[in-house]
């Protein structure tokens, strides 16, 4: 009963916090309990003063839960399975330690990420290098430490072979594939050997100083059916490798496991319906200067797709993985096919492991009205500190009224510190029913996956945001080792 009362209290508190800032069309974020505890923490303003704005707060506890969900799906199907954490999704070393502690590997995309994993005690067999561009120095580091390299192209393969011969060692590699066939079409990608055109590569590998341990691929998007077809075609390559005397033992299906940032499918659908009306001039704009978010108005109709992550979607994470494993290939489920092929299934999720693991907090520095009468609320941060490749982070921020003085209700936009007209932290029009004061704090929830670090920039010589680890074991909050 106590747990139920606590949950009810948190839910009531969260409703109270949300009332200070809502989108014109609300998009309520899913928020973890550890985050809500901070909303009323009297120490939060002091942390901002000490470490600067914005400040990233992270917790590794949700990562452990997210990993457990994926592992449980595989265990229920008696599948040999291993998760590799996509380090590029967040630079904090606390997540490397947590992944290692939970038995997950580390997917690295740079030489620094490799060395940091080694320095944190991750064994070489638990590291894979999937960097899109691999320098001579990076390849040497992999070879000297016996780290598996996902080979992307022939030039890269030649460098690996040359350096392996020079070092008198055998390179451990996985062949990265692309160009899979799906519903009569080739899936476009910039990654990997083409599954059809480059099949002559197989006959060229036998006399090279390589140990081909597996097949790897990366697909854009979240279509589970595409993954099933890619798995089927990858298994054909695995069999061909075995027929030629190689011993591939794993199939790595990359990352891109979907999550849902929002609580309500209805809010998500309503937002896009009203956004379309705004673009057609049928209602007032709900984005800054009626920003199109990737869609266009042409001859009275809306064309194009939103340049946005699907912030609400289903199925996600474990259920999505289960749908792939339970799909059929040639009359057998994918899970059965992998078991019968004696293949370990690997994956490299980033965002889905970071779900619930972080939030970004920034201080309000000013309020002013522009020439159009819109209020602009200036935060001590820039747009690269909460942004990926999407046009916008489509969740409602949470305003913590910690500033002094009074303020009238206002409607406007969050703007950042870069000296450009496009420096919007959120393109959506936001309502502030209780006003905004200088010194208030704005929280962007669930930013650990890519949003904190993927595009962060030091333009204008601004310092990068500090990252603080919130312990679930009662230990004091402390800077992540990446900042020490």
Automatic annotation (TrEMBL):
<dbReference type="GO" id="GO:0009089">
    <property type="term" value="P:lysine biosynthetic process via diaminopimelate"/>
</dbReference>
<dbReference type="InterPro" id="IPR022653">
    <property type="entry name" value="De-COase2_pyr-phos_BS"/>
</dbReference>
<feature type="domain" description="Orn/DAP/Arg decarboxylase 2 N-terminal">
    <location>
        <begin position="78"/>
        <end position="267"/>
    </location>
</feature>
<keyword id="KW-0456">Lyase</keyword>
<dbReference type="GO" id="GO:0008836">
    <property type="term" value="F:diaminopimelate decarboxylase activity"/>
</dbReference>
<dbReference type="InterPro" id="IPR022644">
    <property type="entry name" value="De-COase2_N"/>
</dbReference>
<dbReference type="Pfam" id="PF02784">
    <property type="entry name" value="Orn_Arg_deC_N"/>
</dbReference>
<dbReference type="InterPro" id="IPR029066">
    <property type="entry name" value="PLP-binding_barrel"/>
</dbReference>
<dbReference type="InterPro" id="IPR022657">
    <property type="entry name" value="De-COase2_CS"/>
</dbReference>
<dbReference type="InterPro" id="IPR009006">
    <property type="entry name" value="Ala_racemase/Decarboxylase_C"/>
</dbReference>
<protein>
    <submittedName>
        <fullName>Diaminopimelate decarboxylase</fullName>
        <ecNumber>4.1.1.20</ecNumber>
    </submittedName>
</protein>
<dbReference type="InterPro" id="IPR042152">
    <property type="entry name" value="Y4yA-like"/>
</dbReference>
<keyword id="KW-0663">Pyridoxal phosphate</keyword>
